[in-house]
């Protein structure tokens, strides 16, 4: 592909993560082909697993891929939160639909399998972006890749993660470090395990939160969140530090899960977020260029909405672009795309800001530390009242995709 000639696309999506692949699937459903540019050599699955709430499954239903996952992952309906310092255990009930933890790789593969094989161009690193006015309110996005390739596109969607090049081009403020970091990994019990089929979470007064969540009869997704960021990068060293330093006072049941970690899945990362007012008032789009997923609204993981909100973005973006195509008799009209993208941003701006805010507050309360009023807020109010209210953010339906006439999807 090196030195490839200039080419023209209807839609270019930067990044083959959850947001990027889901957006490509949404566009395929409404008869629009997208080219996905991914800097890595293949599908990336950093993060090991994620928990999908009802809003995420409604989005997957709209995308037509939920059936690929529901047959492999059973829902969880309850969990417990244990205070390490006091021994208090509180029960947490999830919604009637429950939540389903899934392997991140399985979700990405389920989305990728819906796309034509030539839809994703791997090893494609973005070098620069420019916008060329075409007259009549239309513009063309020009993407320059590091290998010398130039791609022109009628629509450019940045799904390139927390440190998004497209978000930077739009002028969005850089994400901030929340002051918290997280270790994430899978744990494997080859002979099977005998743990309950529920979320088991732990908090302590030193500002640490940890949990393990069953994926199936042999595997768990586990994480530990704490203040600061000072673990080394080698998987064995990270596991050792969790066992000996960060979770040394945690119950043996949790330490046993950590000991069974699949070291190839361990990752350690600072938790980043964008100030909600930067999302409400920031430039989330310019003409026919916009962002989705973490590129728009990086958030801390306490509400488990990073993946779900990315899937919502994809459906809403697909709906507005699809409606434009339908309105124009099946034609992809550049001049109308800026309006479609503007409508998408208006629909997503406040929803995304509320999820970022809810996630940050949830983490701040749970990792607040030893002060008496913080303990009171967390132990007496948060899990009983506030958590359920914040959980209401997951009871959200992003809507469906418009129907297009048969034959359009190809």
Task: Supply database-style keywords.
11 helices; FAD binding; 7-stranded mixed beta sheet; FAD/NAD(P)-binding domain; oxidoreductase; alpha/beta; monooxygenase; disordered C terminus
Helical/strand content category = alpha/beta
CATH architecture: 3-Layer(bba) Sandwich
Would you identify the CATH H-level superfamily?
Answer: FAD/NAD(P)-binding domain
Question: How would a crystallographer describe the biggest sheet?
Answer: 8 strands, mixed
CATH topology (fold) name: FAD/NAD(P)-binding domain
First-residue to last-residue Cα separation: 24 Å
Rg over C-alpha atoms, rounded to the nearest angstrom: 22 Å
Q: Which descriptor suits the 3D outline?
A: elongated
Mean pLDDT: 89
Portion of residues within helices: 25-40%
CATH class: Alpha Beta
Number of helices: 11
* Strand content bin: 25-35%
Total DSSP E strands: 17
Question: Spans with pLDDT under 50 lasting ≥5 residues?
Answer: 406-410
Number of domains: 1
What's this, in brief?
This protein has helices at residues 18-29, 54-63, 66-70, 104-112, 165-170, 235-246, 252-259, 276-281, 306-327, 334-366, 372-391; strands spanning 7-14, 34-37, 49-52, 78-83, 89-93, 100-103, 120-121, 126-135, 138-145, 150-158, 176-188, 199-204, 208-214, 219-227, 267-273, 285-286, 289-291. With 410 residues, the protein is of the alpha/beta class.
């Amino acid at each position: 592909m090196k030195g490839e000639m200039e080419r023209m696309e209807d839609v270019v999506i930067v990044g083959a993560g959850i947001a990027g692949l889901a957006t490509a699937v949404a566009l395929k459903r409404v008869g629009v082909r997208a080219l996905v540019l991914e800097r890595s050599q293949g599908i990336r699955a950093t993060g090991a697993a994620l928990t999908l709430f009802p809003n995420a499954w409604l989005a997957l239903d709209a995308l037509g891929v939920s059936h690929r996952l529901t047959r492999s992952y059973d829902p969880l309906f309850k969990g417990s939160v244990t205070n390490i310092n006091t021994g208090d255990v509180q029960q947490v009930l999830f919604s009637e639909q429950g939540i389903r933890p899934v392997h991140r790789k399985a979700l990405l593969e389920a989305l990728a399998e819906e796309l034509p094989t030539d839809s994703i161009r791997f090893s494609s690193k973005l070098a620069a972006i420019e916008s060329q006015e075409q007259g009549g309110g239309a513009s063309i996005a020009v993407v320059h890749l590091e290998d010398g390739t130039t791609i022109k596109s009628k629509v450019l969607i940045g799904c390139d993660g927390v440190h998004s090049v497209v978000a930077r081009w739009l002028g969005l403020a850089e994400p901030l470090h929340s002051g918290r970091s997280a270790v994430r990994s899978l744990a494997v019990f080859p002979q099977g395990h005998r743990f309950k089929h529920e979320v088991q979470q732990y908090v302590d007064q030193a500002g640490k939160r940890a949990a393990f969540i069953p994926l199936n009869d042999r595997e768990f997704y586990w994480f530990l969140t704490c203040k600061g960021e000072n673990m080394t990068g080698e998987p064995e060293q990270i596991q050792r530090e969790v066992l000996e330093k960060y979770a040394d006072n945690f119950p043996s049941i949790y330490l046993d899960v950590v000991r069974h970690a699949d070291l190839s899945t361990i990752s350690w990362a600072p938790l980043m977020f964008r100030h909600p007012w930067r999302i409400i008032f920031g430039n989330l789009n310019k003409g026919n260029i916009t962002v989705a997923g973490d590129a728009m609204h990086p958030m801390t993981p306490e509400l488990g909405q990073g993946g779900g909100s990315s899937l919502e973005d994809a459906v809403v973006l697909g709906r507005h672009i699809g409606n434009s195509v339908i309105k124009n008799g099946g034609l992809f009209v550049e001049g109308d795309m800026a309006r479609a993208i503007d409508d998408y941003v208006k629909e997503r701006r406040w929803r995304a800001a509320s999820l970022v805010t809810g996630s940050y507050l949830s983490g701040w309360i749970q990792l607040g530390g030893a002060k008496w009023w913080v303990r009171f807020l967390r132990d007496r109010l948060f899990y009983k009242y506030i958590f359920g209210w914040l959980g209401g953010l997951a009871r959200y339906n992003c809507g469906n995709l418009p129907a297009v006439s048969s034959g359009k999807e190809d």
